[in-house]
Amino acid sequence: MIFDPLSYDFSGSITLVYGGEWLDLDIADGDSDGQIDLHTCVQSEYCTRIKSSERRHGFGLNGSLITNFLSTNDAMLTIGTFTNESRRIAQPGVGSAFLLPYEAITASTSTDDGTVLLDTVADDSRSWSFYPEFDSIFSGTGAALVSRLPDLDRDGTDEFLVNASFGNPPRIYIVASSDLAAMDSSDFATDQQVNLSNSYRHPNSFRIDGYLFNPSSTLTSTLPDSTNGTTRTFLLPLIQENNQSRSLVVDLRQLDAHDRAEGPANGVITSFETDNSGAWEFPRITGLSVCGVDVGQNRVQALASSFFPSPGFPRTYRLELYLFDIRDPTMLDMLDTEHDGTIDLANILSRDIEGVWLVSFSELAIDRDGIRVNCIGDLDGDDLEDIVITLIERDGTNARTQVILLAYADLSRLDQLDGSQDRRVDTSALWPDE
What we know:
alpha+beta, 32% strand
């Protein structure tokens, strides 16, 4: 899937490129040169493009795949948008997220330019449309990022998440597949159009208020991860909106307990207790990502980054990245000397615990404005997720990046570059002359 929310004057589109026909895709434009012209690909029907007809919709902001939907053979695409409007009586609204079955997409009639209209696919009886609970506090925005989650309600279908990050407060909706029919019947009509305001009022669905979610944390990076929900971790990384140096990881299976801890259960969670409750805090961490399960190694890779100014040194930052196995957060909690729901990674590192690494950047952190880290799958065949690190520098409206690909298998060798083996890797040692 190729996402382009800025296409068609910001109406947005996604393009499905069928990977089994690369040679045919290449020659569709008349040249066998290793370059694929997507416009020609769509017109020749080697690719399928879905576009929105809503003005400035930003359809295709992001998306993911859900297979075996509701115990059928349907593959569903979950797609997010940049702008949307709530649905009210006599007001149709503009959808914030969509569940679109692949079979409905291929069955839809294309327009003269080969594209398929979103309205056509959304009108199919197998499609689902979701509308925001609140309109954005910023006119013209209302970004809804979507992500696939593991099967929480044990109905054989993965769940999905809608992240309304521009809300006040930001809101995260956990939408359970087993609740969809009840959600649909709770509004004006049973039409597979759901108001998110009705989503968390059902047993297996929730709304989380006041927390930020990193959508890159749940990007599919391995083939088993894209087709088998049992390989997804139940750990959801969050950052508290009003204290962005407070990162949490929450066990999704314990959401009901957190809901009840705040009083009568209403599906809305505004805080997480970290005392033996399925939630753990990471102090002094400003970014947290959880990768897919490394099935061959029985490991869940986690990436925790910290980005703080260095006192007395303008435009210089302390930039650090921890890599560790988060498969058992309770064990990590015990390793940092105090079993209190707080995981102090610096403390664990000082105790030389196997599998915990610190990546630093020294001179590479000078004049940087941020860091992004992502898992990118197993590139070197060791059954462990490898890492991509993006260092960001901004100059007015311009942004420059430096991208570092870090293979997990190389960490031990990189550790020796400074003459010691202490599970600390300084990436600047890779480029000593810069």
